[in-house]
Structures are given as C-alpha cells and as structure tokens.
C-alpha cells in the first residue's frame, strides 16, 4: 500500500480499496479501507460480517461520501428514512442519474449488531487457523503462507494447495473425495483467464499466466468459521488425511 499510495500522490490519482474480505485487516496499524479515498466492504453471506447482501463504503471526503449515498438510491436527494419521519413528509428531488444499490434497513440492522462481534469472531478464527496448521502439518499439501510482519490477516479463508507434491491426488479428485466424506470445500479461486468470458472477449490464454493457472487448479478452501467447533475441525482434518490417501 505504501508504493500504491506513493504512485497515487505522484499522479494525483484516487485510490479505491476493495476490502470485501478485509473487515479485520490492518497494515502497520492502519485499517484496510482507510489508506485511500474510499474503502468498499462486502456483507454478502460468505463474508465475516453478514447482512445477507449489500456492504459498506467508507471515505475521507464528506462531499464524495454524500454523493455516493445519493447515487446508491436513484440519485434522490433524500432517502425514505428522511422522507417519512416523525417530522412529516419531505419532498425529494432526483439530482442525478443513480442506481438501485441501497441496502434494506433490516439488513443494515443485522450488520450493525455483528460489528460488535468482529473481534471475538476473528479471535476464534485465529485459534482455528492455528489448529489447522497443527493438524495438517506433515501431509502432502501446502499450507497457507504466514502473514507478513506488521500485518493483521483477516483469516477469511483457509486455503491449501493440493496436487503439486506428486504424492497426492489432483485437486478435483480431492474435492470429490471430500464430498464423499461429507465435508464441504471451496475453490478460491480459478485464475481469471480460465473463465470463458475473458478468453472469448479478450483472447486471453491461461498459459500466459502459468503461476496463476497452477494456483487456480490446486487451491482448496477448507471450512473455517467462528461457529466451527474443535471437534468439527478435527473431523475435517481427518477427512483431509483420508481424501489425500485415496
């Protein structure tokens, strides 16, 4: 981020941070989303703060934040909360062409209550992360790289690499084996160039990015959630051992 911000300052560029998975993330004591001009967080059902859908934008410039609010609701000058209040109806105006990007009040309320548990949930995921490292060490797979110094990792996904040691099944066979053992897994993610749209639209060839392709074909995400129990994690670890042996 230091290098990115230096380039942005030199060329007078705006920096918008994609913080979809990074509510807890810090770099040198600075929260993700607060380095640049805007930070964008996701509260989709697969994230660490869940509201069902929607997200949050944070920003430094009050005028730009106000414009983002306007754009999120059809370009209207007042949202429903301010149009229909105890003080009576207030007229609104459409001040520019906007979008239907507003979050439901119910979703926002759910999200607000979860903010109080962000630290508690992160500490639980950290404990699970360490337990995985102990349980899976010595198996023919690659464990996640430790976080860099002065960095607080969100610990959002626990990803391992399968099939690159020569002594284990390929990734997709491993996925099938885990499914047969009743354990859900994920892939985060295939390389962009492997998706048909990008190949057809831009003529991209996955072979142009062999490292990204290799990681995309080997990566597996194991279950990790603050609700996961120690015994459930142990069951996952035992299933991984069995799936690698098949």
What key attributes describe this structure?
single chain, 246 residues, alpha+beta, Aspartate Aminotransferase, domain 2, Aspartate Aminotransferase, domain 1, 2 domains, 3-stranded antiparallel β-sheet, 9 helices, 39% helix, DegT/DnrJ/EryC1/StrS aminotransferase family protein, aminotransferase, DegT/StrS_aminotransferase, pyridoxal phosphate binding
Describe this protein's structure.
InterPro entries: DegT/StrS_aminotransferase, PyrdxlP-dep_Trfase, PyrdxlP-dep_Trfase_major, PyrdxlP-dep_Trfase_small. This is DegT/DnrJ/EryC1/StrS aminotransferase family protein. Belongs to the DegT/DnrJ/EryC1 family. Pfam families: DegT_DnrJ_EryC1. This protein has 246 residues and is α+β, with helices and mostly antiparallel strands. It has two domains: 2-115, Type I PLP-dependent aspartate aminotransferase-like (Major domain) (Aspartate Aminotransferase, domain 2, 3-Layer(aba) Sandwich), CATH 3.40.640; 118-245, Aspartate Aminotransferase, domain 1 (Alpha-Beta Complex). It is built from nine helices and ten strands. It has helices at residues 2-11, 62-72, 80-83, 105-115, 118-136, 171-180, 196-202, 210-218, 230-245, and strands spanning 16-18, 26-27, 30-31, 38-42, 55-59, 84-85, 88-89, 151-152, 158-161, 219-222. Strands 1-4-5 form a three-stranded mixed beta sheet, covered by helices on one side. Helix 5 (118-136) packs parallel to helix 9 and helix 6 crosses helix 9. The longest helix is centred in the middle third of the chain and has 19 residues, at 118-136. The radius of gyration is 22 Å and the shape is globular. The mean pLDDT is 93.
């Amino acid at each position: 981020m230091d290098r990115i911000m230096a380039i942005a300052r030199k060329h007078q560029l705006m920096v918008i941070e994609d913080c979809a998975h990074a509510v807890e993330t810090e770099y040198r004591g600075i929260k993700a989303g607060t380095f640049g001009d805007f930070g964008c967080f996701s509260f989709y059902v697969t994230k660490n703060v869940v509201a069902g859908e929607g997200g949050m934008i944070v920003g430094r410039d009050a005028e730009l934040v106000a414009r983002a609010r306007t754009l999120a609701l059809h370009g209207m000058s007042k949202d429903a909360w301010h149009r229909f209040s105890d003080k009576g109806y207030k007229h609104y105006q459409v001040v520019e062409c906007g979008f239907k990007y507003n979050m439901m009040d119910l979703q926002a309320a759910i999200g607000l209550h979860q903010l109080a548990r962000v630290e508690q949930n992160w500490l639980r995921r950290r404990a699970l992360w360490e337990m995985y490292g102990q349980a899976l060490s010595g198996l023919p797979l690659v464990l996640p790289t430790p976080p860099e110094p002065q960095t607080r990792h969100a610990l959002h996904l626990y990803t391992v690499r399968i099939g690159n040691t020569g002594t284990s099944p390929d990734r997709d066979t491993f996925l099938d084996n885990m499914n047969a053992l009743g354990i859900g897994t994920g892939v985060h993610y295939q390389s962009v160039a492997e998706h048909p749209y990008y190949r057809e639209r831009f003529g991209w060839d996955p072979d142009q990015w062999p490292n990204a392709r290799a990681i995309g074909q080997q990566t597996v995400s194991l279950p990790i959630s603050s609700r996961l129990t120690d015994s459930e994690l142990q069951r996952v670890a035992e299933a991984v051992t069995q799936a690698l042996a098949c």
